[in-house]
Amino acid sequence: MKGIVFEGFLQMVEENYGYKIVDQLLTENDLASGGIYTSVGTYDHREMVKLISTLGQKTGQNIPSLLKAFGLYFFGALKNGYPQFLEAAENAFDFLQSIENHIHVEVKKLYPDAELPSFKTKRIDPNTLEMIYQSERKMADFAEGLIEKSLEYYGENALVEKTNLDPDGSTVQFIISKK
């Protein structure tokens, strides 16, 4: 997992819970990285699992809600760091449909070792989009936050329904219906 994701997570924790919690997350977990992340570095995703689990213990929040909150937060980093991806689309559906075959291709050019989730999309009708998320990291709740924030960015109101297609959460269907 790229360091930019870890950096974004720690920034979110600091903004929402304070530096003391960030320090506790980094010192109370046995992290192979030592808790030192660079945006271009690559780190074991299990470190993120440890950090989120520990944050959940400290805050009393469940992991899915923390992952979704992180997705909502991290959209800002993507918007500020890679505005060209958002500007290239006219609406949220166009943007979401560009993730797999355009955005992820460009990310791989920048970070060849990046391990990205798969997003297969299909327009069911002009107001409904199906997205199939697939990743061994099982972070569909993070993706849900990103999806919801992209809808907000384009000023669109939609219902996002999430269904696990695999019991372990590695394959998840999102049905996004504009209101």
In what range is the share of β-strand residues?
A: 15-25%
The helix/strand class is alpha+beta
What order do the strands of the largest sheet run in, or round the barrel if closed?
1-2-4-3
Shape: globular
The overall pLDDT, averaged over residues, is: 95
Head-to-tail CA distance between termini: 35 Å
Write up what this structure looks like.
The chain is α+β, with helices and mostly antiparallel strands. It is built from 7 helices and 4 strands; from the N terminus they run ααααααββαββ. It has a 4-stranded antiparallel β-sheet, with helices on one face.
How are the secondary structure elements laid out?
Layout: H1 3-17, H2 19-28, H3 45-59, H4 63-81, H5 83-87, H6 92-110, E1 118-125, E2 128-134, H7 140-153, E3 158-164, E4 171-178
Antiparallel strand pairs: 1-2, 2-4, 3-4
Helix pairs in contact: 1-2, 1-4, 2-3, 4-7, 6-7
Q: Can you describe this structure in just a few lines?
A:
The protein is of the alpha+beta class and 179 residues long.
Observed structural traits:
179 residues, alpha+beta, four-stranded antiparallel beta sheet, 17% strand, globular
